[in-house]
Amino acid sequence: MVRMSRDALLLPSVIEAIGATPLVELGRLVKGLNGRILAKLEYLNPGFSKKDRIARQIIEDAEKNGELRPGQAVIELTSGNTGTGLAIVCGVKGYPFVAVMSKGNSLERSRMMAALGAEVVLVEQLPGSAPGRVSGGDLELVEMRTRELQKERNAFRADQFRLQGNFRAHYLHTGPEFLKQSNGSIQGFCDFVGTGGTFAGCAAAFKEHDPAIQCYIVEPQGAAVLAGKAVSRPNHRIQGGGYSRPDLQYLRPEYIDGFIEVADEEAMASARQLARVEGIFSGFSAGANIAAAIKLLQGPLHGKTIATTLNDSGLKYLSTDLWDSSRPIGADGGLNRTASRSSG
């Protein structure tokens, strides 16, 4: 299937509006620092997140190889973004979709999926877990329920942690878009890891283009399992990743040049600063990516051009403390802290 450009005069469906997102230089945010940050506005996808890309790729791959039959139910666990993308793609293509999600994720996400026609199954968190803080243990409960429902419904599992469509969406499209839009000027890349598909797909495309491009994994402070550290804060607040899973199959060592840890407060402060200074309204993981890129400019990638993704819209977090104006985080947004050393 040939993918149409987003600037075509007429698209046959909203699925063809997925991808080809703008790349923006954050010149105001990095004022006073030596270097550049180029951010891809993934919240401008139809489902307001980068996960629309993998939803499309996974479903189209399954159609092509015969794993998905016409009219068959599709199921997947989600923190909300992959589920939204799958709800859109499955709705247009005529597949019933079941989204299984922890109650710890924001309410906006479940409501959006339901509005798009998904059946949303919410799973209770572990005792002691707090809303807005989904741990690896919480995710295990969601995984168990997803497997039960998959068997009951004889559904196709759109498994974002294992299916190659996750990697392929970013290797074939997101990474090459970055390179084309930046005229090949990228020297570094950082990404907050959930399933690892965005990091791995983009890093593979970047390394093929130029092996000197430095690629850094971003993790929550206190849950940096991929960097080889013990978990001290499983209930971090950066939704959509940092699940403390060491088994992410896409993360091959040759893609990884280092690791950056970001505290909850740093991610939140960066997201708020991004909104105030650049007019970009995004979520927790986008804030984590910006905080990490700032640290890289202050440290190992001083003076370089760093690419990152702004993964989803701030509209998905209006019920969380990310956008609670009664809780300010420092006059400068917390961006000008001394950089911590990369563990890679």
Walkthrough of the structure:
The chain is of the alpha/beta class and 344 residues long. The chain has 2 domains: 14-44 and 166-323, Rossmann fold (3-Layer(aba) Sandwich), CATH 3.40.50.1100; 51-157, Rossmann fold. 34% of the residues lie in helices and 14% in strands. The protein is built from 8 helices and 10 strands. The chain has helices spanning 51-65, 81-93, 107-115, 136-153, 164-181, 197-209, 264-278, 284-298; strands at residues 23-25, 36-41, 74-77, 97-102, 119-123, 156-157, 188-192, 214-220, 258-262, 305-310. The strands form 2 sheets. It has a 6-stranded mixed beta sheet. A 4-stranded parallel beta sheet has the order 5-4-3-6, with helices on both faces. Helix 6 (197-209) links the parallel strand 7 and strand 8 (214-220). Helix 7 (264-278) packs across helix 8 (284-298). The longest helix is centred in the middle third of the chain and has 18 residues, at 136-153. It is globular, with a radius of gyration of 19 Å. The N and C termini lie far apart (39 Å). Residues 330-344 have low confidence and may be disordered.
SSE map:
Layout: E1 23-25, E2 36-41, H1 51-65, E3 74-77, H2 81-93, E4 97-102, H3 107-115, E5 119-123, H4 136-153, E6 156-157, H5 164-181, E7 188-192, H6 197-209, E8 214-220, E9 258-262, H7 264-278, H8 284-298, E10 305-310
Helix pairs in contact: 1-2, 1-5, 2-3, 5-6, 7-8
